[in-house]
Amino acid sequence: MSRPGPIEYKDASAEVRAVFDDIKKSRNVPDVNNFWKYLAHDPAGLKRTWESIKQIMAPGALDPLVKEMIYVAVSVTNGCEYCIASHSAAARRAGMTEAMFGELVAIVGMANETNRLANGYRVPVDAAFE
Amino acid sequence: MSRPGPIEYKDASAEVRAVFDDIKKSRNVPDVNNFWKYLAHDPAGLKRTWESIKQIMAPGALDPLVKEMIYVAVSVTNGCEYCIASHSAAARRAGMTEAMFGELVAIVGMANETNRLANGYRVPVDAAFE
Amino acid sequence: MSRPGPIEYKDASAEVRAVFDDIKKSRNVPDVNNFWKYLAHDPAGLKRTWESIKQIMAPGALDPLVKEMIYVAVSVTNGCEYCIASHSAAARRAGMTEAMFGELVAIVGMANETNRLANGYRVPVDAAFE
Amino acid sequence: MSRPGPIEYKDASAEVRAVFDDIKKSRNVPDVNNFWKYLAHDPAGLKRTWESIKQIMAPGALDPLVKEMIYVAVSVTNGCEYCIASHSAAARRAGMTEAMFGELVAIVGMANETNRLANGYRVPVDAAFE
Amino acid sequence: MSRPGPIEYKDASAEVRAVFDDIKKSRNVPDVNNFWKYLAHDPAGLKRTWESIKQIMAPGALDPLVKEMIYVAVSVTNGCEYCIASHSAAARRAGMTEAMFGELVAIVGMANETNRLANGYRVPVDAAFE
Amino acid sequence: MSRPGPIEYKDASAEVRAVFDDIKKSRNVPDVNNFWKYLAHDPAGLKRTWESIKQIMAPGALDPLVKEMIYVAVSVTNGCEYCIASHSAAARRAGMTEAMFGELVAIVGMANETNRLANGYRVPVDAAFE
Q1: Chain-centre distance for alpha carbon A60
Q2: Rounded distance, CA A120 to CA C80, Å?
């Protein structure tokens, strides 16, 4: 295989291990997901991405479950299977029930539909929305 | 202009007026948005779309504010200006503060970023997510 | 303005004029659309694009109206306003009625919706489709 | 597996079975596709989606083959493998030859190309298209 | 107008001004672009985004001109007019000629086309690429 | 299997073989990739696509490595796995190091993020970019 594979903890540099350690501690998990093991090929990107996600997904004006569901909505729209799988799992861990998941996917589907109806008819933005 | 323009209430068929009336009553607004006035060129589609949205966006396992924010997340990802404008306005009416909007847009941006990091490294889905 | 504007016939090189002439003759129009006037900044690309479109959009196993409607379907999905406007106009010239346009946009909307339902539930392809 | 799998007829609720029965009868098939078996986790969404598709895909101003090809065009643009597979199969059943499929994919490719050429040069919409 | 407008320097908080000052100094410009003035509604996001961009777009294994052209390629693919405009301008400042721009847009168009040809035929990845 | 599979050289028409021969000669490879073997179902499209790619990807104002990286950027944005795999391999053959790949993917991710930040805040294009 000529393309990069995952970098496991035992093979990682000190810089990468420091990020892996922080992910494991913050999330209370024994190992990091594949996403981080591949991103480890770019140690600066690994650190920057993790720190950005940690900041963005922390509880704030929106709670963590809502944040994870928004993440799923984007990933489903883009058709990114890895992110659909990982963030659906994260949303379930944060309390998403199957009823909530069903409603989430239904809204994502509907929004993708009406986005195109608006495009197709070239609907001008109402003055009230400006 | 050769392409279809908006259909105003006074020019609408009885079938279209019935939908416009239900939108105005359900949302307690004096007139419908441009989206509906253009979609009125397809009366069956107008009725079907409105009834689907009414069902999907009703309070359920998810509350209306969360639903509107998910709608915004999809619309921002797709770059549909009309839907960004109309559903951001709807989310604000449902209680979205500017702090919540800032977090929403930040998550949408981040998810769009990590979707592509996962694509670029062709990260396989972890067994734990299956 | 620092970015390139349209190149009009009178200012065009012989290479660009030859393509413009062929477009005008093939389509029986007095002038080319803005698309070609901008693409003229890349004469090789102008010629290649025109020849590809002429080949692809010619009557074949599919008739020109169906071809234009497929073009609209893609453009609406991508939210490309220029192409929605120009190919909707071309489809109307090729015989698309407003009823056909309404059905076209409805299918595009529905397909965009069910694409995301399939993504969200990560539905595996049925053996019958392989 | 923590994520939802397909719901088979024998395990389905009466509400879901009623939709499955209507799909099987309408399409004259012995079983429904995976898409419906997953969507069955959201019975209201299952019913709404099936009724919308049945209405939209029925013969109208456009014939069923053209409708299926438009569906394929959207699915190919979005890269939704499930929908590409299922609607290509449906289009073939409705009479799409391989020559027609080749032309369809060629148009979808070309439209995706020129959408970006129009974006890249920021081509303004011609007055004639308004 | 109910939606947020740009935040000008004179109206900005100390936190926002610090980022604006760093942008102006790093880029040697008298004022920041609209992008930053709107993002200023989310001061934490403003700071994080600026620091990420500064890190990512700095000279590294790739030179700044190539980096800007990659940025344009993504923005054209997504149809984000603001980013097409701002990063095309940045690429020109970094030395992009019109011939280079023409080739860039042509590649972006072609890649968008062949991405869909690969989708349409559901081409399996060659073993040699794994 | 009802859908078209790859067409191997030994089963190809003279028209298809001529294109396969030119690809093998131009790239100095013993066989063509799957992409071409599937596209061979549309001989006119095969020839047109190969000739367009040969013209577009030839050394010009941009060198072949930069061209391949732009191709990867588009493919990653669209999530086209086949094209990500094939063009990442091509870029590596053209000299892309892992450090360059890491920066490329990071820019693609960042651009996808800021495209949505610009969408979300509906940032107007600065006069300086017109």
Answers
A1: 17
A2: 10
Q: A99 vs chain E: nearest CA distance in angstroms? A: 32
Stretch among A71-80, C8-17, E2-11, E27-36 having the lowest mean pLDDT: E2-11
Any residues with CB less than 8 A from the CB of E108 and at least 6 apart, and which?
Answer: D116, D120, E72, E73, E76, E77, F70, F74
Chain E residue with CA closest to F119: the answer is E80
The answer to whether the CB of E82 falls within 8 A of the CB of E35 is yes
How many CB pairs below 8 Å do chains B and E form together? Answer: 21
Average per-residue pLDDT for chain D = 97
The answer to whether the predicted template modeling score (pTM) of the entire model surpasses 0.95 is yes
Low pLDDT (below 50) residues in chain A: 1
Q: Are A68 and A94 in contact (CB under 8 A)?
A: yes
Asked if residues D14 and D46 have their Cβ atoms less than 8 Å apart, the reply is no
Retrieve residue A41's tokens.
């090929």
Nearest to D95 by CA among F92, A74, F104, C62: C62
Residues 88-107 of C with CB under 8 A from D: 88-89, 97, 99-100, 102-104, 106-107
Residue A101 · residue D2 · CB < 8 Å: no
The verdict on a CB contact (< 8 Å) between D121 and C38 is: yes
Interface ipTM: 0.97
The DSSP annotation for C36-55 comes to HHHHTTSHHHHHHHHHHHHH
F96 vs chain A: nearest CA distance in angstroms?
A: 12
pLDDT, position B125: 97
- Put simply, the answer to whether E123 touches F35 (Cβ < 8 Å) is yes
Please indicate if any CB of chain E lies within 8 Å of the CB of F125: yes
Residues 6+ apart with CB under 8 A from C108: A116, A120, C72, C73, C76, C77, D70, D74
- Return d(Cα F78, Cα A82) in angstroms, integer: 14
Tell me if F73 sits within 8 A of E74, measured CB to CB: yes
Sort out which chain C residues have CB atoms less than 8 A from F1's CB and list them. Answer: 130
DSSP string, E40-77: TTSHHHHHHHHHHHHHHHSSSSS-HHHHHHHHHHHHHH
> Please, are residues F83 and E77 in contact by the beta-carbon 8 Å criterion?
no
Residue of D nearest to F1 (CA): D89
Residue position matching structure tokens 């403003």: E46
Cα diameter, chain E: 59
CB D20 within 8 A of CB D32: yes
- Cβ of F76 and B114 within 8 Å? no
- What type of residue is F96? M
Yes or no: say if F111 and F76 are a contact pair by the CB < 8 Å rule.
no
Give yes or no for B110 touching F (CB within 8 A): yes
* DSSP per position, chain F: --S--PPPGGG--HHHHHHHHHHHHHHT-SS--HHHHHHTTSHHHHHHHHHHHHHHHSSSSS-HHHHHHHHHHHHHHHT-HHHHHHHHHHHHHTT--HHHHHHHHHHHHHHHHHHHHHHHTTPPPPGGG-
Q: Rounded mean pLDDT of F53-67?
A: 97
Which chains reach chain F with 3 or more Cβ–Cβ distances below 8 angstroms?
Answer: A, B, C, D, E
Q: Give the C-alpha separation, E57 to E74, whole Å.
A: 14
CB-based contact C52 F55, cutoff 8 Å: no
Closest listed residue to residue A97, CA positions, set D12, B130, B61? B61
